[in-house]
């Protein structure tokens, strides 16, 4: 049997920019290696010992969501039905007051009279705007808000960085940063949930600014 001290270990993890034969993290050991999925949150090592498989968070307590749980690679999202939006805990669906933000309603469905909010929806009442009326000569008295448009809340402030508020769906959705100026990346821009990252073509490596590519 050969003396271990006289042998030279082959570091399999040097291949594929440090990933070796692993999908994610490769840890070199004497005369072998092992793979982990520590760099891919929401995943675990598959039975083949090399690849990472998604953990479906929705299978446990519906992912903590009050309504629909949507599983994606690495994480799960809570989704609300029409007429609801996610609360600050990003798990509970609360009613959307469509009457307070009629811009979230398609123009052909907006109320021309009084708008009354209901749980998960709204209804319109025909007639004068709420708070308005007519004087003795039949002219509008100009109720509250007549002649001026009330300032609408900025729903995007409810969403975390990398997401924007979809007024139609009533929840926060991923913003594709790569759709604008290629995300600032010199070569490849890869969008991900809530973020993005740059990568380089074969024969190049990513510079320290995480955007530029340098020839090897």
TrEMBL record:
<keyword id="KW-0964">Secreted</keyword>
<dbReference type="InterPro" id="IPR018097">
    <property type="entry name" value="EGF_Ca-bd_CS"/>
</dbReference>
<dbReference type="InterPro" id="IPR009030">
    <property type="entry name" value="Growth_fac_rcpt_cys_sf"/>
</dbReference>
<keyword id="KW-0325">Glycoprotein</keyword>
<dbReference type="InterPro" id="IPR049883">
    <property type="entry name" value="NOTCH1_EGF-like"/>
</dbReference>
<keyword id="KW-0677">Repeat</keyword>
<keyword id="KW-1015">Disulfide bond</keyword>
<protein>
    <recommendedName>
        <fullName>EGF-like domain-containing protein</fullName>
    </recommendedName>
</protein>
<keyword id="KW-0732">Signal</keyword>
<dbReference type="InterPro" id="IPR052080">
    <property type="entry name" value="vWF_C/EGF_Fibrillin"/>
</dbReference>
<keyword id="KW-0245">EGF-like domain</keyword>
<feature type="compositionally biased region" description="Basic and acidic residues">
    <location>
        <begin position="127"/>
        <end position="138"/>
    </location>
</feature>
<dbReference type="InterPro" id="IPR000152">
    <property type="entry name" value="EGF-type_Asp/Asn_hydroxyl_site"/>
</dbReference>
<dbReference type="GO" id="GO:0005576">
    <property type="term" value="C:extracellular region"/>
</dbReference>
<dbReference type="Pfam" id="PF07645">
    <property type="entry name" value="EGF_CA"/>
</dbReference>
<dbReference type="GO" id="GO:0005509">
    <property type="term" value="F:calcium ion binding"/>
</dbReference>
<dbReference type="Pfam" id="PF14670">
    <property type="entry name" value="FXa_inhibition"/>
</dbReference>
<feature type="region of interest" description="Disordered">
    <location>
        <begin position="127"/>
        <end position="152"/>
    </location>
</feature>
<dbReference type="InterPro" id="IPR001881">
    <property type="entry name" value="EGF-like_Ca-bd_dom"/>
</dbReference>
<feature type="domain" description="EGF-like">
    <location>
        <begin position="54"/>
        <end position="94"/>
    </location>
</feature>
<dbReference type="InterPro" id="IPR000742">
    <property type="entry name" value="EGF"/>
</dbReference>
